[in-house]
Amino acid sequence: MFTLSRIELATGWQLRAMDAALTPQQNFSAVDGWLAATVPGTVYQDLLAQGQIPDPWLEMNELQVQWVAERDWLYRTQFTLEQDALEKRQEHGQVDLCFDGLDTFATVWLNGVQILVSDNMFVPLRQPVRNLLIAGNNTLCIVFESALRRGRAVEAEHGGKRPLWNGDSSRLFVRKAQYHYGWDWGPVLLTAGPWKPVALQHYSARIDEVDAVVEVAPDLASASVRLRTKVVVAEQKRSGLQLRQRLLDPDGREVVCEAQPLTTENSCTWQLDQPQLWWPAGHGAQALYTLETTLLAGDLKLHSECRKIGLRRLRLIQEPVQGEAGSSFYFEVNHQALFIGGANWIPDDNLLNRITPARYRQRVQQAVDGNMTMLRVWAGGIYEDEAFYDACDELGVLVWQDFLFACGVYPAHPAFLNSVEAEARAAIRRLRHRASLAIWCGNNEDYAIAESVGLYGPDQPRAKFEALAIYEDLLPALCRELDPGRIYWPGSPYSPTGEGAPSLLSSNQSTGDRHSWEVWHGAMHPYQQYKQFEGRFVSEFGMQSMPSMAVLQQAIALANLTLQSAALIHHNKAGSNNVPDGHPRLVKYLIDNLGEEWGGPSPRAGSLDQHVYATQFIQAEAMHYAYMDFRRRWQTPGRRALGGALVWQLNDCWPATSWAVIDVNGTPKPAYFSIKRMLAPFAIGLLQEAGQLTAWIVNGSSSACALALRLQVFSLDGSLLDEHSETVNAMENCVTPIMLAPRNERQPVIAAATLYRMDGDQPERIAANVAWPEPYKDHVWPDPHIHIERVSSERITLTVSRPTKGIWLQTEHPVRWSDNFIDLMPGESRTLEAPGLGAQAIDCRYLGHAAHPAPWAAK
């Protein structure tokens, strides 16, 4: 017996385009044309690093690199094994060649012998190779066939093109990240290569699977951890082997330690008293226990595995909503009902190997800092890297995990189902121990597109929508088998209407989850009307904006930084029916809200950087309305009419005009701060409609508290017209309406509400909101005379002489602003924390800034 060893095969790799006139072995024997390759990595990544292709992120270079996806690619390397070590392992143990991920159609040879074929990017593969290894140099070769060509061949074999939104129709037949085929926010870059590690693993016995099923008792006073462990023994001699498992509490103290003789499948159950519970961010600690599993032969450790698990009780509550049709859709953690505010997550890069653990951590931390409690891993991407789920576990972000089927009518022939089963089994086994994992979801918008083309609905036979075999048979069965304690939801959006009845999807506001795209898509309703397009859980909605000027300047040459340049428009992928219409849609929302000068072929509203601010202004305002209106519907127990809202989208994968609230550089847009304020533990809702004011307080904490409310009404020039203060008892975890005296305004006014909590003798400002007369284009906004005082190198104070809308602060180098995109009233002073500011110049923009140049902006 000997300890498991893993040799990473990460060096010495080369790649080359395949010559179709030669056999694979002739290609591998070729002398010329080889380039150094990075493994794990992809063809695009290496071609770019070695100057063989232009950067597809820049200008319109994406169009110049499409040939890469049409070629087959070869990878080869050699590794050396010493004679003595090889003989020992060949005589007494097993040697496996492990491929954690091959993208996508791959054939592998070891020392001239074909050992495996892959057709699924998401299935890790392991192949015994003990008898093929030789002392000295061993040669490993891989052919990656064009996923585009192979996909189209499979498509033709199984009936031709199927309905879909986004990308080439052949993607529906290929188990590859669907966004690689292009989406309405990302480029077409069909990568190929060993995108995850390749390794040689030597062992006499190894831990194959550890399943830890956690169940917290209804009274939260105890928990059980049920373990099932599978071990592979190379020589099939289990006598004398032991399995030792330990559980350490979040402070590192041993809670349980149990050793037992190894059997075919070892299992045990531990009972824990007074467990430390895992909570989502903002609701408690993220307590994580450490589970250690060790395989022993006497005192010799053959293999050891360590993972973190969290103890929490999570439920999806679907119950009647008092006074309304349908049922609720909200999450409850440890008996605490939660309004879930969050975002959709797309892969953070098209070249996945460029995403570091630090970058994953930064993005998830940004979500937490924005008061978000859930990220939805969207179905057109990947099952994310361990670093992503580690960050979610440790920072308290719930994960809505889609299975990877997006916006299409997928096939369900036997070979496809077999591949999907292998993929889903691998994903479930890898992720099921995660405390952050809240729900598995079958697909994204596949029910919706099937419904739109008449393949699904109350009058349609099941056989017309064959992918139901995936979403309603295969995937739920696998979840019941492998992860029975987790919620499974057939699709997003999905709205069950009754026992055995089909779903009514996009239009259903009374059950299930909903994608609310009436704003931006479709009829392009005003964002002020988001409350008309709510649902029980709004899992997608959004508004586009341009990225920062810094991103645009990095991606587009100075000569092309104009509003009508082909390069700028190319970096907005939004479109309908293959017609790019993102730019015109942006312009319509600009004109409707800010005025005619923001539209037309030659906008009169100044420079590109002002246009960037204007689009970001609109996005921020839209998100303000959305989250304010959606959270208002959280109400009281029994009346949880809307359980959560996930903006489309958190992040970008390339420099683009998109729906992201954090651009590709990691810079939050104004919308990020609008969302952050409306998802804070305490928030104020304030609306001005037909001269009347409506207000409410959202208390997201678990305790009621008395708060001081101040309401001020100003004229546009800053004159104080009215002021009112009162104490409001904000009930815990619900919405408290505020009774305001009727008003009959005959002039445009600005209403500002501020909420304070008494902290000793000093009131603590905890929330604010301002209701402005809209549309903004109908009013003249006087110069506000903004004053910025540098209190220190990491702190500033803002004051104004007149009401100021949308103060947006920018610097050349990143600053972690505690708040931004601020509304400020006369007599009010706001101090902001600004780590990273130093002596940098501050650029300041605000509603009306184009008419009022700020001479202090560069100071």
What can you see in these coordinates?
This protein has 859 residues and is α+β, with helices and mostly antiparallel strands. It is 19% helix and 32% strand. It has 15 helices and 45 strands. The strands form 13 sheets. The protein has a six-stranded antiparallel beta sheet with strand order 3-2-4-9-6-7. It has a six-stranded parallel beta sheet with strand order 27-26-25-24-23-32, covered by helices on one side. A four-stranded antiparallel beta sheet has the order 1-12-5-8. β18 (289-297) and β19 form a beta hairpin. α6 (357-369) packs parallel to α7 (386-395), α8 (414-431) runs parallel beside α10 (468-482) and α14 runs parallel beside α15 (670-678). The longest helix is centred in the last third of the chain and has 25 residues, at 608-632. Residues 853-859 have low confidence and may be disordered.
Give the number of DSSP strands: 45
Mean pLDDT: 93
Q: C-alpha Rg, in Å?
A: 29 Å
Compute the separation of the termini in Å.
70 Å
Q: What portion of residues is helical?
A: 10-25%
Which class do the helix and strand fractions yield? alpha+beta
Major β-sheet annotation: 6 strands, antiparallel
Regions with pLDDT < 50 over 5+ consecutive residues?
853-859
Question: How does the overall form come out from the CA principal axes?
Answer: globular
What topology, given as strand order, has the largest sheet? Answer: 3-2-4-9-6-7
| H/I helix tally | 15
- Strand percentage: 25-35%
What's this entry about, in short?
19% of the residues lie in helices and 32% in strands.
Secondary structure elements and pairings:
Elements: E1 5-8, E2 14-17, H1 24-29, E3 35-36, H2 43-49, H3 67-70, E4 73-81, H4 83-92, E5 94-99, E6 105-110, E7 113-118, E8 125-128, E9 136-145, H5 147-157, E10 181-183, E11 186-188, E12 198-203, E13 205-216, E14 222-233, E15 241-248, E16 254-261, E17 265-273, E18 289-297, E19 300-309, E20 314-317, E21 330-333, E22 336-338, E23 340-345, H6 357-369, E24 374-377, H7 386-395, E25 398-402, H8 414-431, E26 437-441, H9 446-452, H10 468-482, E27 487-489, E28 514-515, E29 538-540, H11 549-555, H12 566-570, E30 575-576, E31 579-580, H13 582-594, H14 608-632, E32 644-647, H15 670-678, E33 682-689, E34 692-699, E35 705-715, E36 720-730, E37 734-738, E38 749-759, E39 762-771, E40 787-792, E41 795-799, E42 804-810, E43 822-824, E44 829-833, E45 843-845
Parallel strand pairs: 23-24, 23-32, 24-25, 25-26, 26-27, 28-29
Antiparallel strand pairs: 1-12, 2-3, 2-4, 4-9, 5-8, 5-12, 6-7, 6-9, 10-11, 13-14, 14-17, 15-16, 15-18, 18-19, 20-21, 21-22, 30-31, 33-34, 34-37, 35-36, 35-38, 38-39, 40-41, 41-44, 42-43, 42-45
